[in-house]
Amino acid sequence: MIESNHILLIGLQNSGKSHYGAQFELRLSLSKGRLRKYVVEKDATLFQDVKERLVQGLPAMHTPTGTKKSKYLSLINDESETIDLVWQDYAGEQIGDIVDARKIPEKWHKDVTSSDSWLLFIRTDDIKVKKDPINQLPNRVSFDHAEDSGEELKFEYSDQTVFVELLQMMLFSKGAKHNGRISHPSLTIVLTCWDEIDFPSSQNETEATRTPQKVLHHFAPMLHDFVCNTWDPKALTFLGLSSLGMSLSDDQPNDEFVALGPENAGWVVLQDGSQSSDLTIPVAMCLHREA
Predict the structure, then answer these.
(1) Can you tell me whether residue 215 is helix, strand or coil?
(2) Per residue in 240-271, pLDDT tens?
(3) CA angle 216, 261, 273 (to 5 degrees)
(4) Is the pLDDT of residue 108 over 90?
């Protein structure tokens, strides 16, 4: 018996949390993965609307801003170990608000402090490497001009800093030990919408050798270095994810996706660059580290 596990999935808006949640539940129901349901839950409403749209070949609707729901799953793995798992769905804007306010609100504090593993969803389209404020200043507006016009100086910070600051706040709230690299909570960075990533061209690189860690280092070198220098390598994982395997239109059903069926769509890119159709792997790897 594995003790109860609380995996906290962290992601900004449009990072694919709802699509993954629906696909994860679908894989559990069909016993198509390393994890399967041990007890059938009474409440099956979470992600139900997402699953209904996927069956029609349509993507999920945007999660309402104030949404924050939790459910408890009783699972069993390939080693016949039973696991109690807390699963959540929420609007991604809430994560952005935490960084803007520089404070973790009460409704999130318990989730952060009680969590054993963190799944950080990042969509590379949302990571833009920008100049730091010092380099921006000469090209933006002078202090004299700003004072004369009453214009407020604004700087564009790298999107990587959002994730770095968020992780730092969460570690502080968690009270994580800093005498050496962190092993608890574990961290899994998942690069979502893998099928949409505009990969950097390289003559020596093939799809099989394109690992999630290399891709993160390309798109977010500061974030990559931060997590590698902060977490124990045994508690840090890099994965890629395409929950649907293709892009879906908001109003035009995708016949190819309907014919394939959501239960057969999507894949996970493992740390070595290989792929698996088992979408329970990101969660299963978190639980295995806690076993």
Answers:
(1) helix
(2) 999 999 999 988 999 999 999 999 999 999 99
(3) 25
(4) no
**8 A C-beta contact, residue 18 and residue 60:** yes
- Confirm whether pTM is higher than 0.70: yes
21/9 Cα distance (integer angstroms) = 10
Note whether residue 266 is domain-resident: yes
User: Per residue in 119-134, pLDDT tens?
Assistant: 999 998 877 655 555 4
* Separation in Å, CA 77 to CA 187, 196, 290: 20, 31, 13
How many independent structural domains does the chain possess? Answer: 1
Nearest to 2 by CA among 233, 217, 291: 291
Does residue 148 lie in a domain region? no
Q: Does 52 reside within a domain?
A: yes
- CATH code for position 93: 3.40.50.300
Amino acid residing at 123: R
Contact (Cβ atoms closer than 8 angstroms) between residue 185 and residue 174: yes
pLDDT of 141 reads 47
The domain of 110 spans: 5-128+163-290
